[in-house]
What does this fold into?
Amino acid sequence: MSAKRVLLIVGGGIAAYKALELTRLLRKAEIAVTPILTAAGARFVTPMALAALAESAVRSDLFSLEDEAAMGHIELSRSADLVVVAPATADLMAKAAAGLADDLASTALLATDKRVLMAPAMNVRMWLHPATKRNLAALEADGVAIVGPGEGAMACGEHGPGRMAEPEEILAAVQAALAGEDRPLQGRHVLITAGPTAEPLDPVRVLTNRSSGKQGYAIAGACAALGARVTLVSGPTALAAPPGVERRSVETAQEMLAACRTALPADVAICVAAVSDWRPDTVFGVKLKKGKEGPPAVRLVENPDILATLASAGAERPRLVVGFAAETGDLEANARAKLIRKGCDWIVGNDVSEGAVMGGDDNAVLVIDGAGAECWPKASKTEIARRLAAKVAETLA
It folds into this structure.
């Protein structure tokens, strides 16, 4: 990616602050950034901050004598390998859909002959408005790629779809777009499990674990960015499904196994979920309360082994089955033993003894297959996901 260049158009909206982090991530990935800051965008981020992170001058004026003499809007719009609009406001999307060109940003979009990637960000009512839907359909018909938006609380106090995708998601989409039209997982079906399971004891208590689902969701997003059709079977998390990913929400291990079975056939199964090994034998119909007789005796029974089941699925066994091993000691020995015991093709082991991995944003893993082991040093879960998706694509190829 070191020879790649992005023209980043920053629209006006509170989500513009995420453009600064996106710029930092792009430069960290050795992707050059030339920013265009709209007049509205400059109300939320300063040209100085954007220029410092991009290590490049910020353009904003269509009629700047100096800029037009040095690099006119035509050359500016075509010198990059990809045009990224983040945030893509309702106004910018409408202008691009209609072919309007009344400022530098909209003119660059109309004049470019490169691919365009937009990360929409707006109020939920604006996103759901028929006009925005029409504009979105027109842009997609014109070949514009869309990442997000997500769903959640907004700065305006409302809740729903319209939140700009997180910078890490946009970076993954940028990298996939820059990798070329031949997306290596195009036409492949990838089944991924993520998050914890929650095994009920009574109407208010469950047996669960600290998994946040972040690593599994990141892998789902990375595979989708490489063109795969992704089915994400997820336990309870607070995460939004990555763009282009079909999520099937479950709670218990039995529900997760059933959802995985109905998702087959698949080319790849990646079992990232932290599935509870046991569940209470009896689920009480009322909330258990303290009493003179002391706490109730709870008998545990084993849950189904989802990874082993998928690895021995007969004619429907995915070509590649990948498991995860969260360990608190003897990482390589325990991971290798799990690889053999489960019958899968790869095991991705990680040490969770320090408590910073489960729920955190970073990971360090040991990838074990029949050929040996690869140690991937500590990196963001997004980067680990990108590397794993690339390894999957290379193996299937």
Observations:
- The first helix runs from residue 17 to 28.
- The radius of gyration is 24 Å.
